[in-house]
Amino acid sequence: MKKLLLCAAVLALTVTGCKKAEDKAVETGSADTVKVEAPAAETAETAAPPSKEEMEKAWGEYMTPGEMHKLLASDVGSWKANMTMYMDPTNPTKAESTADIKMVMGGRYQEAHYKGKIDGMDFEGVASVGFNNASKKFESTWMDNMGTGVMYTTGEYDPASKSITFKGSSVDPMTKKEKGFREVYTFVDDNTRKMEMFDSDPTGKEYKSMEIELKRK
Asked: Signal peptide: which range, if any (predicted)?
């Protein structure tokens, strides 16, 4: 009985609301006509969902490694990395490390492990790089034992210079604020790579903060 009463109450409220809406429409319309709006055009939310074949085709293209993944695979191997850091431009810091690079997950992503010493301290870093077939951009992460943050960048390949320019931001440990940075990774030749890092000072001016030359072992 209570359920029937509740349903009746809801129905009454609905009818009353509709009646008020109709009355308002009549009041705001012309003396003889009531304006009736045409239904809105079909939106993406109401459009028919993609077919199974369309979904399979899209995901097949998304998951299949292509030419840019072959480019990443050309880095596979062991490398000697000569690092130069420009924290003090007049007195740059030199360091050496090794990099072991491999492709994982069926050639879809590149994974690099760096080890060495910087100012007498053990250094270790891990990088991952992939090419997103949907966005048509490279995506990269970096983390090391010299901090506690993960750096994320996206980039595009320039065939003329044979380089990928990555852009991202990180939190400055001194100011605790985000600042932008840029990284240029150049495929110099089959056995040489060069990575250049550019940071921004408090005024936003860009400066070169690090360079790494990699030579295949």
From this structure: 1-21
Q: How far is CA 196 from CA 26, 77, 199, 212, in A?
A: 70, 20, 10, 7
How are beta strands 192-200 and 206-216 bridged, if at all?
antiparallel
User: What would the DSSP string read from start to end of 117-132?
Assistant: EETTEEEEEEEEEEEE
CA 2 to chain centre: 55
92, 214 contact by CB (below 8 A)? no
Mean pLDDT across the chain: 85
Residues 30 and 73 in one domain: no
Average of per-residue pLDDT across 128-151: 97
Domain that residue 203 falls in: 69-216
CA distance 40 to 150: 45
Show the tokens assigned to 126: 């891990």
Dist CA 210 CA 87 (whole Å): 8
Same domain, 112 and 209: yes
Task: Tell me the residue type at 23.
Answer: D
CATH assignment of the domain containing 212: 2.40.128.20
Q: Mean pLDDT over residues 11-35, rounded?
A: 44
Per-residue pLDDT band at 11 (split at 50, 70, 90): very low
Q: Would you say 154 and 166 are in contact if contact means Cβ atoms under 8 Å apart?
A: yes
**Domain for residue 15, yes or no?**
yes
Total domains in the fold of the chain: 2
Percentage of residues of the chain with pLDDT beyond 90: 67
